[in-house]
Amino acid sequence: MYEDNPMALVMQKWQERYFGSNSYGRPTIGTIENIQNFNQEMLFQHKADLYTKDNLIIVIAGKIQDKQTIQDQISSLFTSLPEKKRIEIPVFPDNHLPAEKSSFFDKKTEQNHLIITAPGFDGHSDMRYAANTLATILGGNMSSRLFQNIREKQGLCYYIKASHYSSQNHGEFVIRAGIDKDRFEF
User: N or C end of the chain, less CB within 10 A?
Assistant: First the structure.
């Protein structure tokens, strides 16, 4: 899992802290206990829950001569899929921010990893485009402002990046950095 990759581990710990017991706060791959208890029946149920006609997008590109024939073929191939999703998207409360504004996770690594988070925009908001652009300008690549100033000019970190994540009903703006543990104490 993530224990061997400190940068990924700190992101997982951040998700647990930021989202709490909401499904967004749990590991994508699942907990060790879940993986050990996973069986074939659960896999088939997952497929039945998510692989539905309303949850499927088919894209065909190129010079298409006979659109109706293609539509008929697609319809016949996917007739066995259920019409509607059987599960609901988890509700994400507006007041989801943790009461405690900072938390620490102790692990012996070569560097400390820092994550700073603020609420962002969900996947339906037009503001997500501006937030993604801001994240790219601030820390999206090696010519970004954070990378050039914090890492290159001041030498304060090993890596620094900014991202904006949008989901169905929430978003967050995240800045992450890998910091020399001998220069900064937490």
Answer: C
Longest Cα separation, the chain:
66
Torsion-angle region of 62 (φ positive above 0: left; ψ -120 to 50: alpha; else: beta): left
For the stretch 21-60, pLDDT in tens is 777 888 888 888 888 999 999 989 888 888 888 888 889 8
Sign of CA dihedral 12, 14, 16, 18: negative
> What DSSP assignment string belongs to 32-78?
HHHHHH--HHHHHHHHHHH--GGG------S--S-HHHHHHHHHHHT
If we measure between CA atoms, which residue out of 82, 178, 83, 175 comes closest to residue 134? Answer: 175
Better pLDDT: 94 or 39: 39
How far apart (Å, rounded) are the C-alpha atoms in residues 13 and 8?
9
pTM: 0.71
For the chain, what is the mean pLDDT?
Answer: 85
- Give the Cα separation of 117 and 97 in Å (integer): 10
Q: In 3-state terms, what secondary structure has residue 129? A: helix
Query: Could you state, in order of their start, the residue ranges of all structural domains in the chain?
Result: 97-180
Record the tokens describing residue 91, joined without a space: 């509700």
Q: Is 58 exposed, middle or buried (0-12, 13-18, 19+ CB in 10 A)?
A: exposed
97-180 sits in which CATH class? alpha beta
166-181: pLDDT as tens digits: 988 889 999 999 998 8
